[in-house]
């Protein structure tokens, strides 16, 4: 069996960030499935390399967290066009596995199904366009209608849908009750993360503060103002709690300024680290 796996933000463990697609692709390859990954990078030219048993195609589509809305839309469109062009030159797969975000990657599956009648699985990592409509307060009824039509077309054409959380699964089922929606949440590497016995009852919290760590995307849709609000309340109550914020995104600079403005001495902003 041959699968073309599409994820615009594919990352390896040594790059930090979300590595779900890396592990899923490697797992499929270990089962004897031939996997080719199509993704993007910030370099100026196309390149292809081997990630273990997985061939990875890197399309030259720059993307940065500080991009404006229109710059992001342009990046999504460029990836869609370049991915279509590349797929047309590759050996036809038995299946496309397409991961969002962005939602526009799903259009590649719709196009491939219409062109070659090849089925596709659509993995929903975030609720788009529901999340940006709520967070960015998109009120224009024409824009909202267009976004929901795009979403509806992708979900209806997908042969299977994979959700990453019960909330996402329930939302899709409520919108499209006839679609089969599997729940495959994120997972941990139980070989890498070895459990340890911790004598919590003997811990001296005065010397070793309770640490709360957020590691991941720091975007406006992630709601991390609540993280800083909790740190503020803990500081007012004299709690010996340490709040660590690790990652990158378009809300990072604003959250830094909020941390300084509130003098949150219990908040520590850490750089994105490799897994």
From TrEMBL:
Matches recorded under CDD domains: GT4_WbuB-like
SUPFAM superfamilies: UDP-Glycosyltransferase/glycogen phosphorylase (SSF53756)
Protein keywords: Transferase
Domain spans labelled Glycosyltransferase subfamily 4-like N-terminal: 16-186
Domain of life: Bacteria
InterPro entries, per database record: Glyco_trans_4-like_N (IPR028098), Glycosyltransferase_grp1 (IPR050194)
GO molecular function: hexosyltransferase activity
Keyword check for Transferase: yes
PANTHER family: SULFOQUINOVOSYL TRANSFERASE SQD2
Protein name (record): Putative glycosyltransferase protein
Organism whose genome encodes this protein: Cyclobacterium qasimii M12-11B
């Amino acid at each position: 069996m041959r699968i073309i796996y599409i994820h615009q933000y594919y990352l390896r463990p040594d790059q930090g960030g979300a590595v779900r697609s890396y592990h899923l692709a490697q797992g499929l390859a270990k089962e004897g499935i031939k996997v080719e990954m199509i993704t993007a990078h910030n370099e100026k030219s196309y390149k292809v390399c081997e990630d273990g048993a997985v061939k990875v195609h890197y399309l030259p589509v720059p993307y940065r967290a500080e991009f404006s809305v229109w710059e992001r839309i342009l990046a999504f469109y460029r990836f869609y066009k370049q991915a279509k062009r590349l797929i047309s030159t590759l050996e036809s797969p038995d299946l496309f596995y397409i991961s969002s975000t962005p939602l526009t990657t799903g259009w590649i599956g719709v196009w491939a199904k219409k062109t070659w009648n090849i089925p596709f699985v659509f993995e929903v990592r975030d609720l788009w366009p529901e999340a940006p409509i709520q967070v960015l307060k998109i009120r224009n009824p024409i824009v909202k209608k267009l976004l929901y039509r795009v979403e509806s077309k992708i979900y209806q054409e997908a042969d299977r849908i994979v959700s990453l959380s019960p909330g996402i699964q329930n939302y899709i089922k409520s919108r499209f009750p006839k679609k089969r929606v599997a729940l495959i949440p994120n997972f941990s590497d139980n070989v890498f993360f070895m459990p340890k016995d911790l004598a919590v009852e003997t811990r001296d919290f005065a010397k070793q503060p309770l640490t709360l760590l957020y590691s991941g995307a720091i975007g406006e849709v992630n709601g991390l103002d609540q993280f800083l609000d909790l740190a503020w309340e803990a500081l007012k109550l004299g709690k010996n709690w340490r709040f660590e914020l690790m990652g990158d995104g378009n809300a990072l600079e604003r959250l830094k300024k909020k941390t300084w403005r509130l003098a949150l001495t219990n908040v520590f902003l850490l750089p994105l680290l490799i897994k």
